[in-house]
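SAMPLE LOG
Freezer: B-3
Tube label: C17
Construct: single chain, 324 aa
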Amino acid sequence: MWNPLKCFVSPQSLRDAGVLGMNRRNFDVIAKYNNRRLYPLVDDKVQTKKLAQAADINTPKMIGVIEFQHEVKNFMSIVRDRKEFVIKPAHGSGGKGVLVITENRGSEFVQPSGKILTYHDVYKHISNILSGLYSLGGKYDVALIEELVHFSDIFKNYSYQGVPDVRVIVYKGFPAMAMTRLSTKVSGGRANLHQGAVGVGLDIKTGKSLKAVMYNQPIKLHPDTQADLSKIEVPNWREHLIIGAKAYEMTGLGYLGADIVLDADRGPMMLELNARPGLAIQIANGIGLVKRLEMIDKCFPQNLSAIERVDYVLKKADYMEGVL
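STRUCTURE (predicted):
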């Protein structure tokens, strides 16, 4: 079996192991199955949230939207009755520009770390979002204010401050590969592997951990909490996969990444979608994506509902593993 953690692996070895590279992903998968006119449906978090609500996909509720600089002063009235909330750029990526408030004291706002922000701090942050400081391409943006997710206690020892999520790669509506991303002190509480978060590959059938990596290197314990990463088992696993499968009909994208969080009270919730999901999920799983995508192309039936596609994947999961 391909070992993605070895150094100096030849390109031919990676191809033989079925590793999906950047060029092949862009030209043979994304360009072929993701119509560019559909990108705004996932690049704009406001649009994504409205679509999810219309599709009856569980997602954090939208509290308000701030579109123009002269509206920034109104944020106090938007969150007046909210003890906690999240402010994020509608076109942001990698967790940049996301401001989490766990306590609203009226004139002060408390972050998960305990840091206290003033009205002017939050005002400046929203203003920076609108100016495009955190957006893709630096274009003018919109600030989305949504409810805070209370992540399940099942993950309380596996993440540093931030909310852990599950990334599901969905191909032609079928969940193809998954991992959970766990924030660390180094990543600043963000679940972004490039910033130092931990990636844990998940068995597509059970939601149990396969192996864990940080900065593409294998690890066994969370660097901050020392929790054993081999013990992870995501509850409500089928529901996670169904959310990812439903995103296919919701967006029309043939290849996407669905980021899902587990709320203690409301269960699995779709946080956002990505039309160009990264490839590090292969390292976290220790297997390549190519053969799995080829199997879906050649062997999986068409014209199934989202639930039927998930059940088919669960039924064929052992076979999917066997071809790699």
